[in-house]
Amino acid sequence: MPSRKYADGEMVMGRWPGSVLYYEVQVASYDDATHLYTVKYKDGTELALKESDIRSQSSFKHRKSQSSSSSPSRRSTSRSRSRSPGRPGRGRRRSSSQSREPKNDKKKAIQETSIALPPVLVLFKPSENNTKRYNGEPESTEKNDTSCIILEHKLKPDLEVKRVLEQYSLRSRKDEKKKEEIYSEKKIFATVKTTEKAPTKTKELEFGGRIGTFTLVLFLPATVLYLLLMCKQDDPSLMNFPALPALESLWETKVFGIFLLWFFLQALFYMLPIGKVVEGLPLSTGKKLQYRINGFYAFIFTAAVIGILLYFQFELHYLYDHFMQFAVSAAAFSLALSIYLYVRSLKAPEEELAPGGNSGYFIYDFFTGHELNPRIGSFDLKYFCELRPGLIGWVVVNLAMLLAEMKIHNLSMPSLSMILVNSFQLLYVVDALWNEEAVLTTMDITHDGFGFMLAFGDLVWVPFVYSLQAFYLVGHPTVISWPVAVAITIVNSIGYYIFRSANSQKNNFRRNPADPKLANLKFIPTATGKGLLVTGWWGFVRHPNYLGDIIMALAWSLPCGFNHILPYFYVIYFICLLVHREARDEHHCKQKYGLAWERYCQRVPYRIFPYIY
What we know:
Layout: E1 11-15, E2 22-31, E3 36-40, E4 46-49, E5 54-56, H1 64-67, H2 72-82, H3 96-99, H4 103-111, E6 121-124, E7 148-151, H5 159-167, H6 179-184, H7 209-232, H8 253-271, E8 276-279, E9 290-293, H9 295-311, H10 318-321, H11 323-345, H12 362-368, E10 375-376, E11 379-380, H13 381-387, H14 389-408, H15 416-434, H16 443-446, H17 452-465, H18 468-475, H19 482-511, E12 523-525, E13 531-533, H20 544-557, H21 569-593, H22 595-603
Antiparallel strand pairs: 1-2, 1-5, 2-3, 3-4, 6-7, 8-9, 10-11, 12-13
């Protein structure tokens, strides 16, 4: 095998993927398996490059005599003209010998350039001031005149072209192995995406690595079982540990059958040819997957099915009576699904693996998800589970708890506390389904693989832990007054407003940053071509959507009163979850955006809670 050519720490010139731009970079590391160099640009961006895309700095140094061949004022004029795309022929610098040629000879030489034009070679040295904007126009480069050298070979390949090529110590494009690729590289710097990096092994392990993920596989189901057993007790205090039920009481085949029926009913709704089809964000290969947006229709169809069942006097509180068995059935199904997902991922192409779940360690990849977008034909398993069975199931569980409260306590109508919990959480679910397209830009879809973490979270944690307040109120009724109910409603409204408006700002900006409606928003341009918002909610704190989430979670728990801390488990969990996600986002964004993210953090110092954290 050939040995590496460039050493760690060496300063070289690296070609930016998808362009003919060469930048001054530093070699960070070399992967012997993939034969790729990890290089670091001056703005902090790290990319994996092939050896053929890297050149030594000496190959870009031209003769000193070239810099002294014309006066400073004439050089300035030449550079200014060379940047104008509308005047390609006039930006060429003339040597002293060329300047003495008669004008007629020069015109004749220019007329001979109408055929066989060789490619334009651009040598570029990056800096913060030449970052491209979204509309494709570069920022002012007046301060960077000396950092950009543009050679436009407009003459036929004759002695003049040879002289220029020899002067800059460059090979002719005829000798390049991938000549056709150069002609097709029309993307400018603003449209280059870092997703063009070749897939590599996951080096930084989250969740405590192999030991942490193994612990979570056991701890998460145990936590769900503990919470549900606590809610069943008359005294659900933390010091009153519940007695473990008999194992045979936790399983019922009929319940498992009902769960399977529910899962496949939602799958049927998902496959209905209704709703628009949209494209997701580009994958590492540049491909965009298609998704059908019909979650809200699935919710309407589900509501119709539930209405028919209630009309024919189906006992929906059966779900409350067998709540523990339903949770165990969902956990068993999610485990089986996770095993299937991992086994099928072993045959998946390298480019289809998740960047965060390709460590090579079984338990870690099994937990985080080895394959990024597992599909059966056009049926996307991860996208389906993200919003359908669990999220819509959460609403059905809450409704079952409401009916169970009325039956157990002989009420003609549900309590005010139960109405508030059901209403707040129904609003949250309907909002998610109505804005279903926004989930395509989340890390769950774009970065995380589909493994035990998401399968268990979507199918078990969401419907059986997020409904904890409603389940608690059935056995521990809480009476609240109308003024208190109004105050709690205001708290939830504030949280929802922050959550929805912040997410809408972000999603609209990602989809169409040139939208006139967003003209008032300011942003920091980055080396990836994306922008970091520094006004609106995203200029208030770095994660305003998380702030709205936490405020809403508090409003969902307040109707349960303050007799026990158990209903507030969701708030505590949500804070811990979002702080973990925030730290994860910070690390990911720092790697992705480099110095631009540091500038953003200086501009917006608070992460979630203004003036606190």
